[in-house]
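User: For my dataset I need records formatted as: sequence, then structure tokens, nothing else. Please produce one.
Assistant:
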Amino acid sequence: MEKYRAIPQGYMTVGEVAKRMDVTVRTLQHYDKEGLLSPSALSDGGRRLYTDKDIIKLHQILSLKHLGFSLDHIRDRLIPLASPADVAQILSEQAAVIREKIAGLTESLSAIEALKTEVLEMQSVDFKKYADIIINLEMKNDFYWLIKHFDSETLDHIRSRFDRESGLVFLKKFLHFQDEAIRLQESGVPAESQRGIQFAEAYWDLILEFTGGDAAMLSKLLQMGENDELNQEWKQKQDRANVFIEPALGAYFSNLGVNPFQEEVI
């Protein structure tokens, strides 16, 4: 029992430090093992002994850990902290790391809320659609909500024809045609003019790129365009574009002498 009583003046045992700093003995043992906080001395019996200087260092470790620093980072940066400028520098670095984490978490939270909205609007549980929505949210595709309006066959068709990059490229081209149709209409360009027919030819090529010449997919696109549950802003814009697109396609097909479908085009 003598070794437990022979603690030199000015030293504290690991248990005393743990109680004083509200940490566990195991934590202090771990910090010693990791080279973060070694005791200033050992008793004759091999017990870890700490001083007030060690307490100050432990305060530093716990403060930095609370601020999000990893133990490896603390070990590498703790000893060189000799001036306020040194402390300010590592705090600036950690602030940048935290801001990046906050941005990532904010983005994840937005994606979760967006997916929750889509889930509640869908008529049934469909984890394949959920996965597609998540992928499009990750790609920052603002039109991720379109996915819930496609049936499984159409989504399988899209997955087979487009990857992430080509899918976004196609969407951008479609949006460009949508805007161009509205611009031509508002500029007073006749749909049956040479410019209108050129537009219709390029637009039809885009539709064929999507459908791959599959008439069933064309029919599904027509049904999609007539869906009253579509986002109203999207639907109103497409309706404005159709004022030019429909007669332009009509003139184009008339010149070709063909009629690829009986229903109105999208």
